[in-house]
Amino acid sequence: MVESNWKLYMIRCGNGHLYTGVTTDIERRLKEHQAGGIKAAKFLRGKGPLALAYSENVGNRSEALKREISVKKLSRQQKLLMIAEATSH
Fold first, then answer.
1. How many Å apart are CA 81 and CA 85, to the nearest integer?
2. d(CA 44, CA 14)
3. CB proximity list for 21: less than 8 A, separation 6 or greater
4. Nearest to 83 by CA among 5, 1, 8, 6
5. Closest of 10, 12, 31 to residue 74, by C-alpha
6. Is the distance from CB of 83 to CB of 34 less than 8 angstroms?
């Protein structure tokens, strides 16, 4: 059976930077990033506090990775617009 509960997420760092990733469990993944351990993204180490800024359901792992690549290609302004639109609904 193919997993279809993958999610794309963006984390806002303490310095305002945005980090984009994919996971099946956003809560667990955010805790891993905040802990700064071996499972944390190197980009996020020492950049706390970290806060979930955006998330969306994206289907299976393949779709999630494709969506992650497309979002990472967006400008900062485009990402901020995505976050603003999601929080205004």
1. 6
2. 10
3. 8, 9, 11, 29, 41, 68
4. 8
5. 10
6. no
CATH code reported for the domain at 6-87? 3.40.1440.10
This prediction's pTM: 0.91
Q: Which two tokens stand for residue 86?
A: 């999601």
Q: Which amino acid is at 34?
A: Q
Domain boundaries, the chain: 6-87
For 20-48, letters b (16+ CB in 10 Å) and e give: bbbbeebeebbebbeebeeebeeebeebe
All residues at 6 or more sequence positions from 36 whose CB lies less than 8 Å from its CB, including other chains:
44, 45, 46, 48
pLDDT in tens, 26-84: 999 999 999 998 999 999 988 989 999 999 999 999 999 999 999 999 999 999 999 99
